[in-house]
């Protein structure tokens, strides 16, 4: 029987019944290109600090009291709950019926100024994630403010602000840590009742300064989230693109650079010429090339009917693409509610790679050319529309003024 209560709410109700007074919310995170499961939840980990039990014991108690869902299986995987949908339910509507999408009404994203104890690479990579989160949230119609230090950026011209930041941090004196703490606390206070996201490189502040910010403004504040990417991701080679290129870069060039700096690559794996080149590692170009490839396939002459409309490869490729399409709203949601920009960028690349493989299948190309109602063609068109939106996210700030 299809459920009328989301899985999130049922698990929260079970937890409240078993351990009255618990307050941890239950959320699910999409798993992209994973062998085991489609969503995971750290609900048991969050509850463990409230009820003084191990996450494993909590998971066993929750699963024991959970009603059955014919659409899915839910099991424990270490300290996490892992959710796997049956292939018949690889559909956005089915996913939303099971998993509640949280909403965000107003947010502030706060990034410290360039700090004396932070490396240039760490600063620009974390800044790229903060700026991308801002653009994604604006594209979703969420009222969002972006602070660099205690300075609130104007709503228009965010890419120019990004360009200025890339140039400025190389030319101006770094901010002392003690001043940075004051700037951060002032910006958090100015955000008021907004959902607040604070982005910090792991080496941005000395330990005592970091603890001051955390204790005064983050600790036990449900509407304040601190994001500190892994040190190996943010620190490494200090080479950088020449200032002349940044000065002359178009909006699309800056958007390509922002997504590349926010990619899952470790800092020492970066090739900072990639955003200028037409290759797959340049995600904006890769998405554009796939959209253009689909457009060209549509206008190609039809080939022999011997190609057929069935392919053995469809059995694995189409369910995977259907899964990605259904997961996409949840990936967007995690950017807006948990600042998981790295997950979003990694997922976009995985989806693009799978779509590229699918376009090599004769059956799907034939369906696109013939404008035939084919499940694979419909999924491909949906993903193409998603990619078109991503390609134009650098214009998102102008959509909701």
Please tell me about this protein's structure.
This protein has 401 residues and is an alpha/beta fold. It folds into 3 domains: 92 residues, Arginyl tRNA synthetase N-terminal domain (Gyrase A, domain 2); 162 residues, Rossmann fold; 116 residues. It has a 5-stranded mixed β-sheet with strand order 7-6-5-8-9, with helices on both faces. A 4-stranded antiparallel β-sheet has the order 1-2-4-3. Strand 3 and strand 4 form a beta hairpin. It is flat, with a radius of gyration of 23 Å.
Helix- and strand-based class? alpha/beta
CATH class identity of the largest domain: Alpha Beta
Helix fraction by DSSP (H/I, runs of at least 4): 40-55%
Global mean pLDDT: 83
> What is the count of structural domains?
3
Q: Largest sheet, if any?
A: 5 strands, mixed
Order of helices and strands: HEEHHEEHEHEEHHEHEHHHHHHHH
Indicate the radius of gyration in whole angstroms.
Answer: 23 Å
Question: What is the approximate shape?
Answer: flat
- According to CATH, what is the topology of the largest domain? Rossmann fold
Descriptors for this entry?
401 residues; alpha/beta; Gyrase A, domain 2; Rossmann fold; 3 domains; five-stranded mixed β-sheet; four-stranded antiparallel β-sheet; 16 helices; 10% strand; flat
């Amino acid at each position: 029987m299809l459920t009328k209560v989301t899985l999130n709410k049922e698990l929260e109700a079970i937890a409240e019944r078993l351990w009255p007074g618990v307050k941890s919310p239950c959320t699910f995170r999409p798993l992209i290109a994973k062998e085991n499961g489609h969503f995971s939840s750290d609900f048991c980990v969050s509850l463990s600090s409230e009820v003084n039990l191990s996450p494993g014991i909590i998971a066993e108690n929750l699963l024991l009291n959970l009603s059955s869902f014919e659409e899915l299986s839910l099991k424990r995987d270490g300290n996490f709950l892992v959710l796997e949908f049956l292939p018949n339910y690889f559909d956005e509507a089915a996913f939303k019926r099971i998993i509640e999408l949280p909403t965000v009404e107003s947010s502030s994203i706060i990034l410290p100024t360039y700090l004396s104890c932070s490396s240039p690479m760490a600063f620009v990579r974390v800044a790229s994630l903060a700026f991308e989160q801002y653009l994604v949230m604006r594209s979703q119609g969420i009222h969002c403010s972006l602070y660099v230090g205690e300075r609130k950026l104007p709503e228009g011209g965010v890419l120019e602000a990004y360009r200025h930041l890339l140039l400025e941090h190389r030319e101006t004196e770094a901010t002392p840590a003690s001043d940075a703490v004051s700037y951060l606390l002032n910006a958090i206070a100015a955000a008021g009742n907004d959902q607040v996201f604070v982005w910090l490189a792991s080496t941005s502040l000395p330990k005592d300064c970091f603890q001051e910010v955390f204790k005064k403004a983050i600790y036990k504040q449900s509407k304040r989230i601190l994001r500190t990417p892994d040190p190996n991701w943010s620190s490494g080679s200090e080479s950088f693109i020449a200032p002349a290129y940044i000065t002359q870069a178009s909006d699309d060039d800056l958007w390509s650079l922002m997504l590349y700096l926010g990619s899952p690559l470790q800092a020492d794996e970066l090739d900072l010429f990639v955003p200028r080149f037409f290759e797959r590692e340049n995600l904006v170009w890769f998405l554009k090339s796939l959209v253009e490839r689909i457009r060209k396939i549509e206008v190609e002459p039809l080939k022999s009917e011997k190609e057929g409309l069935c392919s053995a490869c469809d059995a694995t490729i189409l369910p995977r693409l259907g899964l990605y399409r259904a997961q996409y709203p949840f990936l967007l949601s995690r950017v807006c509610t948990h600042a998981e920009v790295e997950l979003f960028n990694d997922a976009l690349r995985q989806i693009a790679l799978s779509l590229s493989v699918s376009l090599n299948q004769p059956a799907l190309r034939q369906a696109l050319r013939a404008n035939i109602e084919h499940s694979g063609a419909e999924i491909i068109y949906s993903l193409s529309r998603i990619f078109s939106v991503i390609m134009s996210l650098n214009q998102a700030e102008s959509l909701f003024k």
